[in-house]
Write a structure and sequence with these properties.
Four Helix Bundle (Hemerythrin (Met), subunit A); 238 residues
Amino acid sequence: MSETGSPYADTSHMPKVHTMFRREFALLPGLVRSVGGKDEERAEVVAGHIRLLCLVLHHHHSGEDALLWPLLLARAPREVEPVVHLAAGHHQAIDELLAKVDLLLGSWTSGAASEDGEALAGALGRLAVTAYEHMDLEERLVLPVAERHIFASEWDTMVATEAASIPPEVGPVLAGMLMYEAGPDVVPPSMRAALAELAPRAYAAHCERVHGTPTPPRSTEVGVGTPYVGVIADRDSN
């Protein structure tokens, strides 16, 4: 049973996860462009951060593909079928962009050439735009249906499956990444005491190394179309 007392899924944490993804992926194009040409050491630091985010996003979507979409199509086909197919199409497009990013990361980190960095930043911009569109669709049209047709136990299984696929050594950084804007309540109560101080410190140290500050811009400061990120230019040029 969910925390609201309903036998159905409580999806209220999903927008908070999306906030994390929006912030982190929106920052990536500018982060890549900030790396000086031939600075392979700095490129490796940024590349490690990008690979971590891409891994988490991939597993997040894999859980939905394996569990959420089949259940929704079985229980509310007339209500949700067009939306699910659109969302699944977003996942496919995102997977293709993730593969492109992975390929470009290899060439960029091997020499940190400016032209390779620009190609990578462009692909990350397209990835951010697609992810933004997908998350907006989910929040508007998928989550309300899930709260009427997916049981809390099924939702919890999906979340637990996604979490189990993440290497445990990066758990504190990811928890801090999520808590940065969502606060400690987003962490399961059983883990809250252990992570309340550890996770924010781990994320702050990670950000200091990646962004040069323990407090990177928040989701309200970055995003598609903002000068800070410049994602809109990448979308318009493709």
